[in-house]
Amino acid sequence: MSITLFNLQRDHIAHLQRAYETILANQGFDSLAIYSGHASVHFADDHTPTFQSYGHFMHWVGLADVQHSWLIIQPEKRPQLYLYAPADFWHLPTHLPEEPWVAEFDVHFCSDKITPSINGNAAIIGDTERLSASAIPTLKAACQPEQLVNALDELRLFKTPYEIACIREANRLALAGHEAAHAAFIGASGELDIQLAYLAASRQRESNVPYQNIIGLNEHAGVLHYQHYDLTAPKQRYSLLVDAGRRFRGYCADITRAYAGPDAPAAFGELVTAMHGLKDELVSSIAPGVSFIALHEQMHHHLAEILIAHDLFKGSAEQAVAEGVTRAFCPHGLGHSLGLQVHDVAGLRHPNGTPAPAPENHPALRLTRTLSTGMVVTIEPGLYFITMLLAPLRNSTLPLNWKLIDQLSPCGGIRIEDNVAVTESGFDNLTP
Fold it and tell me: Which family does the similarity line name (predicted)?
């Protein structure tokens, strides 16, 4: 661990101590117990799915896979970390990294699952539904108070320099995987082998990725959350879409790239280039005070211009947006908040915690905030040839070039995604 990163993390922990002291005082609490959570076994089995620690627990310790553990926060006292570390010859017990930040906590190793005692008017947050029925009464605490959780979510929306450094490093590691995935595609690999190349180059096992990687060849690139990996390569290679990430200290990278294959129509490669340009234009528009909803609407307007410039639509940009043509080609939102969770918290709430839902005509938008310094967001414009979304337009009189659309449909679609921090003067693209 570099001295610089340690100093940033120490400042981050001090920032959390000050912020939590203020939030707890405002909410009338003397202490807070944060439960890390734990995985439940599969039905009729003794194996569990992949687990991710509760976000507000990770906010302090940066450990993404710690189970049955507690963090106790009290104003003007050192954080108390109760780490579940049973004596176990079946599994390697949980242990802390040998890093200087550990000295900022009082660490208690627990061989048994415990419910720590907390004093005064206390609150407990985390996946409390998975605790035993006797645990909550024992704690004598307010369980998951909504206003407190909303305030802590709001705190997480604004990243410290340490958090941004972690997201930047996660991006660096993920990009090595993306380069390897592209090389495997050039080498005519199938989806599973491209996935394995990504994991090897990004130095992670599949259970550690922050979300299931999307590796889509040809038509699969048009399935927004494509969830399978074909074992063999297709005979014709029209396209590849890779939406894949990496964690560093719990913080996530979320990067997408699309590529034209050797069998793709020339027009598809030109569209990939155009979508890179659109992504860059949207990134350059990021600054404090900019409405993310307005950026999303800007994406649709410029997507309409791309459809027109590439002969997919023969009307005006205004008509393409108003008639829902651009929504048929790009049904998802421009992006979302990014941090300890890929789709991070507080994106659909006002600063006071009240709901800020997506607009009725853009229901998939995951971020409706006005951008401010310290936020980290994804920018991910897309252009897809999805049969079920385009089918209703075939029955309209809209001037779409169906011959070209049908030629491009085997390519599936395009999404280009970068991770961007909002700075005082504009933006910092964390995806080099």
Answer: Belongs to the peptidase M24B family. Bacterial-type prolidase subfamily.
